[in-house]
Request: fold
Amino acid sequence: MSRVHVIHENDAWVEPLRAAFDEIDVPFSEWFINDGSLDLDAEPPQGVFYNRMSASSHTRGHRYAPELTAGILAWLESHGRRVVNNGRALQLEISKIGQYEALRRHGIRTPRTIAAVGSDALVAAARQFEGRFITKHNRAGKGLGVRLFDSVAALEAHVHSEAFEPSVDGITLIQQYIAAPQPFITRAEFVGGKFLYAVRVDTSLGFELCPADVCQVGDAFCPVGESATAGATSAPRFSIIDGFSHPIIERYARFIADNGIGIAGIEFITDREGELWTYDVNTNTNYNPDAENAAGKFGMRAIARYLGDELSRIERTETETMLA
Reply:
């Protein structure tokens, strides 16, 4: 029987999706990717394949899960299977460089960024920035490698210390610091290529990239350079914005459509001059349950409905083909 196949490497992140599938009675199975093998002469099962592979898989002991997933997606696509967040989407998930270049092709502004390999190259890259700057890993997720620096000397001391952790792909990014008038960023969520909602994320206590309850990094950090501040309020860190509207949403929709992305969260910040900067595309998006309960909008339910509709569409097409 045709079903939705969920490709992933983190059980905790799939739990809300399982519940959503069960709620609307969508048949599904899971393909947990860690180690294993792929028979290229085999025929893939029927159905819809939803890729939820994460750029941070190596932090959970699944170092080569993205590489194996890339091969699986190529195999599925060569057999004409419907893949949501396809091989191209995975390429962008595991490379910030790839994300920024793809965003720029759609006229979407990204922070100035220099990619470097090696401590000396990192320090040399930092000397090309005026004022404060941040570092981050090219293959990231969970805010890996994100640190704010006030000077080149501070970075030089860091990269030669035991605290320095290189990116799993060896590439570290030096990036322009964006000063925001208020400590928050915005994350735009898309399901089925359509805008679902925007969530405001309070960064006054440091910023956690993953909004789900199960994401706990421990250290306070922010990919836009905001550090923990005194006198932070007790307001919710994640809140869905009622009636959010901005011209950037249309550009984001075109960007994800052109890059094989069906489901994603895209993050941006607005600086003191009102300019909008996009700095992250997450194709393995999660949702904050408190924010969703308050707003009455639910991302995993929307994903389950979308994938269920895709499965029904494929089944109708197969039936019509057999009857023709």
